[in-house]
What does this fold into?
Amino acid sequence: MADEAKAKGNAAFSAGNFEQAAAHFTDAIALAPGNHVLYSNRSAALASIHRYSDALADAQKTVELKPDWAKGYSRLGAAHLGLGDAASAVAAYEKGLALDPSNEALKGGLADAKKAAAAPPRRSPSGADAIGQMFQGPELWSKIAADPATRVYLDQPDFMQMLREVQRNPSSLNMYLSDPRMMQVLSLMLNIKIQTGPQDPDLPQTSSPPPPQPKQEQPETRAREVEPEPQPEPMEVSDEEKERKERKAAALKAKEAGNASYKKKDFETAIQHYTKALELDDEDISYLTNRAAVYIEMGKYDECIKDCDKAVERGRELRADFKMVARALTRKGTALAKLAKNSKDYDIAIETFQKALTEHRNPDTLKRLNEAEKAKKDLEQQEYYDPKLADEEREKGNEMFKQQKYPEAIKHYNEALRRNPKDVKVYSNRAACYTKLGAMPEGLKDAEKCIELDPTFSKGYTRKGAIQFFMKEHDKAMETYQAGLKHDPNNQELLDGIRRCVEQINKANRGDISQEDLQEKQSKAMQDPEIQGILTDPIMRQVLMDFQENPSAAQHHLKDPGVAQKIQKLISAGIVQTR
It folds into this structure.
């Protein structure tokens, strides 16, 4: 299924396995070639491994399939920018923003594209940089995969990491030329054979022993055997590159130390380690997001927000992974929600969570957004709560009810409930309005709310029983009236309700109702889950069969209180009739 392949692709992308992600999205596209989201996702995966030409083709297909989808233009702009076409990137981002002016990803991309367009033209690379540039093209992967000698390297994580580093920074090629695999790939890309050690072209590449040699030649042969093969001379690495690599390694160690302190809840020490990592390497925004997480635990929400803002800004400059930017926005939203003191304070937190979801749809972010929206709604209710104004609105509703202006009365009752959502009298009065308007389900819901809020409120039972009676559910109405009498045994309205229900039930049992009314009653009863449960019970089905075929056995069944109660339920519902 396309959805299954898409889910695998998303999981691989989240884990940083971009080649694997692209493969899964390709499988999904084969199953659903008209799905624009799949082309968009594959474009992102291909761009992550610097296959910008292929990413551009997918982005163009995305826009072709869904020209009104802003995210497609974000993919298009990223691919153009990766290929060095800043002008086309600017145009793509601007088209996307015309569709979604508030999209932060498009805004950030447009800023990067404009910055690249304004930059002076770069000189053509020379020396090691020029060789390193050969690793930037999309043909790199196809050439490595096509050559049997290099194909196996694609399954070696350390080699793939070296290739990505060279793609990111061509001048770093010098650091890896001591690796024979890199020399072999370089030989492949240059289309020349680079000698990596002295070999005799006439000797087969096997482990079989060499043919016997004359005795006088044996010392020389042994000397050649023990002589180590010369390694290719590594290209000279600049002091600046060495220092950069050392600083990155030290920064990672500081981050690991910070993670360990965080797990121990030693937050002050964790802050020190993450700060040190930032000082050593400002090209990894995870140090900022990790420090922001510590600030949340310490209750220093303002410091957390500052770090998250820096992480987002720096992430845009570095064109960091969308997931990292989303993480920074999520943590900022969490801090803003913690600082919220009223409902309006939640607006910016909710907006921040929404921005995070446009970067990367993460279940944790979605959960935090829902929590913030619920907290805002609860606070709005608390801020709007005013029992005095609620009473005034209820009285206005009562006046409209007396004038038989039921829709106007409902409006006042609605406002009263917004001011005081636990006033059972308002629910009772609104239930009466709904009854007058024939809106029985709405009236029943309000009556049940009365009973839920105050089980001793007799009016709730009379409202509910009256609505059930009007709906010709006489057995249910009688149960409601009986439940009310437990709290108010002398309530005349409840007693009258039971009397009316008994009359109607007996009338139905005698067959004194029209065939049309009987069918309507039976139809409603058959929709009742309790009735359905009785009729599908194997024991009750046998009892009903005995009632028709074996009256003496039926009388024996009625001695069981449970069976007798269910039979009475069926009689009251009109399913079983007695003559």
Q: What stands out?
A: DSSP finds 32 helices and no strands in the chain. Residues 123-128, 195-237 have pLDDT under 50 and may be disordered. Residues 239-263 form the longest helix (25 residues). The radius of gyration is 39 Å.
